[in-house]
């Protein structure tokens, strides 16, 4: 019981208190340093206290079987979001690509490394390894992971950011649970995230000048 209480306290600190405390700072500070510090803490705990095998992060065995459904789901999401942006804010559709193709290309390469990978460590690998005693069923683990992932995006001050990341978090957590591979889950996360920037919705997930386009 004491172990579960300690886990619950750590959970509340990492996944509730820290996003709340960072929210007032987010308009002026990039969340990436805090994200990487949290990922480093999670990695140390996994390696030193949970006996996590680092090779599991790069497990490519499930990729071949999972790839068709990953790509099919991505294609459906891309079609729906393209239509939604075209109907809602046609002026921002593919605006990042059209307005700054060089920087867009950099984001496409950097985003999976500097953002997706540490998020995968925190909200999938660490979360599932660390908190399974608190959420004993697979469904509870997936739901709790998605709630934590969505809640972390309160720093962007948009209910739509939280709603979209919660929905995506359900998929990414399910993928991790189904495959046991952080690589597969992170690949799917990278595809979805890169597309959000491409289609014109990147300002929902990053504090930058592009945010103004969503409010016009």
**Helices and strands: which structural class?**
mainly alpha
The low-confidence runs, each spanning 5 or more residues with pLDDT under 50, are 208-216
Q: Taking all residues together, what is the mean pLDDT?
A: 92
- How many separate domains make up the residues? 1
Question: What portion of residues is helical?
Answer: over 70%
Tell me the strand percentage band: under 5%
End-to-end separation: 52 Å
* Global geometry: globular
Quaternary structure annotation: single chain
The radius of gyration over CA amounts to: 17 Å
Biggest sheet details: none
User: How many extended strands?
Assistant: 0
Q: Total number of helical segments? A: 9
Q: What is the H/E order?
A: HHHHHHHHH
Secondary-structure blueprint of this entry?
Blueprint: H1 2-22, H2 32-48, H3 63-88, H4 95-99, H5 101-130, H6 138-152, H7 159-179, H8 182-199, H9 211-215
Helix pairs in contact: 1-6, 2-5, 3-8, 5-6, 5-7, 5-8, 6-7, 7-8
Report on the architecture of this protein.
- This protein is mostly helical.
- It has one domain.
- It has nine helices and no strands.
- Helix 7 runs antiparallel to helix 8 (182-199).
- The protein is globular.
- Residues 208-216 have low confidence and may be disordered.
Keywords:
216 residues, mainly alpha
Write a brief structural summary:
This protein is an all-alpha fold. The chain has helices spanning 2-22, 32-48, 63-88, 95-99, 101-130, 138-152, 159-179, 182-199, 211-215. Mean pLDDT is 92; it is low at 208-216.
